[in-house]
Structure formats: C-alpha cells, structure tokens
Amino acid sequence: MSALVDRLVAQVLGLEVRVLACQARLIAHTDPEALHDLRTTVRRLRSLLRPLRGLPGVEQLEAAAAAVGQLTTPMRDREVLAAYLLQHGQPEAAARRLAQMAEAYPAVAQSPQLAQLLLILDAFPRFLRASERQRLLKGLRARIEKRLAKQWKALDQALHDPAHDRHRLRLLIKRVRYAIESYPELDRLPEAAMPRLKAAQGALGDWHDCWQWLARAEHEPDLLPCVAVWHTTMAKAEGRADRILDKLSAACFKS
Questions:
Q1: Domain span at residue 64?
Q2: Residues 41 and 113 in one domain
Q3: Same domain, 90 and 177
Q4: Helical spans, DSSP H, in the chain
Q5: Segment 81-119, tens digit of pLDDT
Q6: Are residues 10 and 100 in the same domain?
C-alpha cells in the first residue's frame, strides 16, 4: 500500500510543479503552448483523482481542477481557431482573436480559480499521508481497479452502440487514455490500446474542431470563408474516426 501512496504523492507533486511552470509561462507569455500544457496537466490531475473519489480532500481538489478547466476551455478554443486561421490565409480574423488571447493569458495566470487549485494541490499530499496513517486507504488498489474497470466498460458500451455520440466517445477515450497513463501498473487493456486510443482521440479532435467552428461561423461572419472547407474536413475526419474506432473496438474490447 505504501508504495502505491508514494507513487500517488510523487505524481501530485510533479503535477503541482507543472502547473506552477505553466502559470509562470502564461505570465511571461513565453510560448504559445502554455495554455494547452496547463489544460493537459489539469486533465491528468483529474484522471488521477477520479478513481480516488470518496477520500479526504479529493472532492475539493476535483472541483478546483474543474473550475480551471471551465475557465480555460473557451480560451483554448479561440487559441486553436486563431492558429488555424493564421495558417490558412485568414490573417485578419486570426489577429482579432490573438489580440484577445494576449489579455487572456495573464488573466488565467492570476485568476482566483488557478490560485485555488494551487492552494489545494499544495495541501493534498498531506491529506493522502494523513489518510494513510488513519488507515482510510485500506483497499485503495482494489478501489482504483474497480473505478478504472468502470471507465473501460463505459467506453466498451459506447463503442458498440450503433448510435454512439462522438462527443461522449471523445470524452470517454480521453478519460481511459489518461487513466492508463496515471495508473500504468493497473492497466489491463491490450498493448494495442494506447496507440489506438491516441489515434481515435486525434481523429475525433479534428472532427470536433470543425463541428465547433461551423457553429461559431453562424454568429461570427469573418469565419464564413472557411465554412465550405470545414464541411469537407469534418466529413473526412468523421469517416477516419469511425474507421479508427472500429479498429479500437476490435483490438481492445469483446464484441
């Protein structure tokens, strides 16, 4: 048990360091990946925490991480769209969105949501150690395995649903993928799972971007020149995602 708790504490400390580094990068505006890296780190934290629900401090830390995710989602969406526009001959439309991002980066870094996350994150290892001393972590490995199995079962069922929702599938794939990375020693999926999960997430991500941008184009006229291309790209991404999902289902889950 102690080894598992040691590993959890080490992961939490590592994630805290990464969040602090992202915060510093956002303040200094040193690179265009800081916001993305912050969101990825927070997502990894949430994947680590999900199987620990019910333990002291987990609910508060999950809520703080979710708040940062909610704060940064529209900003990241705008950032990705601006990068696309810049690369596809729409510099004026890109510039308008990049100007908004210049104000967003320091706002995220100095936001109460991020400050709250860092405050609770800093204290969380002590909660884990106290829970261990109080013998509240008895059966922790079995608890984690049960939660991971539940996530994998949800993905299995979604993959075999003929009317599957691509939005939900994308979220389920992210959860399973990051859970495997958080708890590699408890992974029970075939070796082919991780590359296929990554490929499926990428294809569904391309489809989701186009779906989202087409919705925005209904209210943002400067996006209209891209609509035809997005319809085509979305259809291709949809077909590619379906093929990858079929391979994922066949390789990793029983039919």
A1: 1-138
A2: yes
A3: no
A4: 2-28, 34-49, 58-87, 91-109, 112-133, 140-159, 166-182, 193-217, 227-252
A5: 999 999 999 999 999 999 988 889 999 999 999 999 999
A6: yes
